[in-house]
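Data deposition worksheet. Section B asks for the primary sequence of the deposited chain exactly as it was used as input, without tags or linkers unless they were present during the calculation. Section C holds the resulting structure in token form. Section D is free text for depositor observations; keep each observation to a single sentence. Incomplete worksheets are returned to the depositor.
Section A, Depositor: J.P.
Section B:
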Amino acid sequence: MYYNEDNQSYQYSYRKGDGNLVEPVYTRNYAEERTASEPPKKKHGGAAMKTVALMLCCALIGGMVGAGATSVIGASVSGKTAVKASTREVAEVVPVKVDGTRQLTMPEVYASTINSVVAINTTVNSTNVYGQTVQNAASGSGFILTEDGYILTNYHVIEGASTVKVTLYNGDMFDGEIVGGDEDYDIAVLKIGATGLIPVTLGDSSKLNIGEAVAAIGNPLGELTFSMSQGCVSCVDRAINVDGTPFNMIQVDCSINHGNSGGPLVNSYGEVVGIVSAKYESYATSTVEGIGFAIPINDVIAMVEDIITNGYVTNKPFIGITPQNLTARMAQQYRYGISEGVFVCSVEPGSAAEKAGLRMGDVITKIGDQQIAQISDLTAAKKHYSAGDTATFTIYRAGETLSVELTFDTTPEKVEPQEPQSQQPSDGYRYYSDPWDFFNSFFGNGYFGGSSYSEGYNGYPGTDDAA
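Section C:
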């Protein structure tokens, strides 16, 4: 192989000194392909340059399309950027007639209900640790039942109130008169001196379905007046216990806070199906969100009408005893063979309990088919009966289980708590809970300040309201 300067190529021979040369393998003249004035160009990142070029083209095309779209919605021909805005006309929301025939939008539900919702503010007198009388403020909600000023709310909203102020949606304020209420059902009726009001339309709470849309309207925190929160029915016929009182409730996931109590729970037809009453804030050690409760309107409407007419619930069942939870300590002290039930502290003369043969020291363990382990069970069982109804009471007495038939009386307008009578259980023994009871038995009841036994004086349980 040798280099031929004339042809500027390499040439080969098969043997040394051979003059017959083969055709050159490389005959391309690179020097002739270049011009003297154009030096060779170096390529830098060819693939990257192609990518950049493609992006620039896309951006250019996108800008042209965007400019065209902008011009469609009214951009100036000068090419300035315009903010896109909707030209949709918003329909005016007006109150509609609520007759249960058609579903409403939530704005319509609010517009059709809000003029029937009221804010309630109360003052409650109390005594501080220094013996001074102080006033505390509280707030809640309610809704108008009649054109002449009857308003429904929760009992706990007005309990112990010395003054009640009712404010309408239009800002008018009135003094509220407490007509009556019932603590066991947490309902109360107020009356204001106004006419021509707009009452709510009541619905049928028994027709509620889980998942159905509902709204709570009221005055959360007492400051965010006439607010509405929307949610759905999470459960119906939910049994809960509020401060020892059992309730049958509608469970909802609407946002409910202090101040919502007493306000209406409204379905998607604009009908009031419940009274917003309570919420879970915590459970055990867990913080709870979205669990609220309302009293079904069907459960209380007859009692509400009774309160409006008579000032109290006239057909509420009454037994005529002073009840107390039986504890293990009491059972041991009285040598009872059971450890739970409702202990009868006293029996009112002439009452249904006396007529049925109940005695002081008896323990009620069942009413009908419902087990009675504590007072809340007794209260829940009574809610299934009205005055005049008869029920079978199962009681424990002197080691035996007996059944008696009791016909409920009518609850008096006001029931005063009964003090335990100075009787002993039927076994005839006197039991002392601690040494002070022994001394008091000789030196006069209460001389040494009474028993330190937490459940009552002389070893007998303390009293709750008469049942």
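Section D:
Residues 317-459 form a domain with the Pdz3 Domain fold (CATH 2.30.42.10).
Residues 14-23, 67-75, 415-465 have pLDDT under 50 and may be disordered.
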